[in-house]
Amino acid sequence: MTQASKAHSTVCIAFGLGCPRAQVDTARLFGYFRANGWTVSDSIEQADLVAVTSCGFCKASEDQSMQLLESTDRRRKQGSRLLIVGCLAGINEQLLRETFDADVVSPKNISDIDALIGATVLFDDVDDLNHIEPCLDRASRCFSEGERRGREVFVRSGLRRAIGACGMGAWVARTAGTHQASDAKSADRVYSLRVATGCAGECTYCAIRFACGPLKSKPLDRVLAEFDRGLRAGFTEFTLIAQDLGAYGQDLGMTIVDLLEGILGRPDAFGLTLLDFDTRWLVAYQSALVPLLADNRQRIRRLLVPLQSGSERVLASMRRGHTAHDAKEALLAVRAACPDSSLETHVLIGFPGESEQDFQDTVALLRAIRFDQVTAYDYEDRPGTEASRMAAKIPRRVIKLRDLRLRRETDGLAAGLIYHVKDWGLRRGRRRQTFRPAPSSQRQAQ
Fold first, then answer.
1. 365 class by beta-carbon count within 10 Å (0-12 exposed, 13-18 middle, 19+ buried)
2. C-beta atoms surrounding 219 within 10 Å
3. Containing structural domain, residue 221
4. What pLDDT shows up at residue 150?
5. CA-CA 20 to 30 A from 391: which of 168, 288, 318, 431?
């Protein structure tokens, strides 16, 4: 794709799914294109350039992103251009380029957009937006609810409608670890503050780090200045966002403790959510973090600490950088320090070589910590990861049975069964799909 001509000045920014980091990136695109003189349109059919955020967290997310991109490619007008951003662009770039006539830009190379549109205001010179909900709402409207939900078979579709009709949607989302859209008024009060990009980890199962690149922390004075702007604007709920929040400052000669001391040292009344705080950093800075969190227990709303496994052997194979023993000690200390905060975790089931005893060790650790929410993911090979080349893969049926057993342990049998029926229906629907780019002649003319 060559540089944009001045006549091509309308962009549609579309968002279907993605993590908080992708949400911040999507919102930032609004400010970036406007700074460069582009008009933001809500219509895929009318825009000269359509920018779509993709997700490659797992195969299901990849498939759903491909569906949304397929829909976009059919709907965009002849002569328009397609720009694919988000982590799938860095995880499976080859698939995207083979399937679509598009520019593909991963998060770690996001500034490459400058050359693609002939930018006069560089991407790196555009600040993150902190109140991102209005932009996300607008970007999400580019796709219908059905498109965002993905293809599903009749059983899953009927179950979803029945759950919604009887008012159980929020309960299932809470107990099954799935996303339920928050109340609009509550979301409008949240100030999203990205403190770093990239990752300092070496997890053998993760492909996202290939897309996001190495850790790059935002200077502390800039973070605190953004935080203070939020306070002055009247925000009372803040969310710190990073790929690896606990690693903040490792590239700047400081630590996450410095960041939290700076923020929590403000005298104002506010609540703080800490997302993706990797366990190894909680272990490394436990002696300083636990007293700090305890002194601010009324402010700490949520703390998401991805555990992934409770097995010493599996954690070593994952290269998580900590032991199960140390994780248990640190998490119990945090639980005691902040008893009213929501302590949450992620668990990966069926990592290559995971034995029944390894799985039982994970369940035992979850029982000991008593997390408020456990989100379980089934292991699957992701492109380029070391784990994808490991032997001793766990059969899918074993993974599914362990998943159900874990969900029964943490959520109850009913929620576990509901999740598995919904998951089966969605996967059956996705098996029927093929990804073919729509011929340009089928796109609507302007």
1. buried
2. 12
3. 178-410
4. 65
5. 431
